[in-house]
Amino acid sequence: MCSAMAVREILHYPDPRLRRVAAPVTDFGPAFQALVEDLAETMYAAPGVGLAAPQVGVSLRVFVVDVAASDDSPSDLRVFANPRIVETRGTQTWEEGCLSFPGIHEEIERAEIVRVQALDRHGVPFELEAGGLLAVAIQHENDHLDGRLMIDHLGMLRRRFVHRQMLKRAAAAARGEDRTQADPGQ
Ligand code: NI
Prior knowledge:
By secondary structure, the chain is an alpha+beta fold. It has helices at residues 30-45, 132-145, 156-174, and strands at 50-52, 62-65, 78-89, 92-96, 106-110, 113-119, 125-131. The chain is 26% helix and 23% strand. The longest helix has 19 residues, at 156-174. It starts with 29 loop residues before the first helix and ends in a 12-residue tail after the last helix. The structure holds nickel (II) ion. The site of nickel (II) ion has 6 residues, from helix 2.
């Protein structure tokens, strides 16, 4: 089957679709395969190190991650469908971005190590223990599946600041000003 990959539009905060709790993937057929291809292409085009289906307006529990995408290492695309974080250990803090929050970078504390169970793009179960940036990306993307966003991890003052920045950005976009900034996000 020939299916052309496509870069899909990424929703920006405060789009309400980012707040929906996504439904489990039950059909791993051609439409799902096309979605996975599009998520990867959209993530690489952005560029970002992770992208979840709700960020392109598809309310399904699937995300892609490639933490090698931000440097010159070979690509390391990972697909997580219906993921479940079954264990967390330790804490770490990274300055995170999000493709749904262009231009925003905030320090967020998360688990240092996560063990995750998920299905691959063909519906085959796997388990993975991850640390470092991969663990951060998995937790960040997994949040998207439950409508949880990076802003929810901030203290009240930073949350208000980011909220206002994003409203300003949305207003500027509505006026037709392009304030897109190229920076890796998730
Ligand atoms: Ni994100």
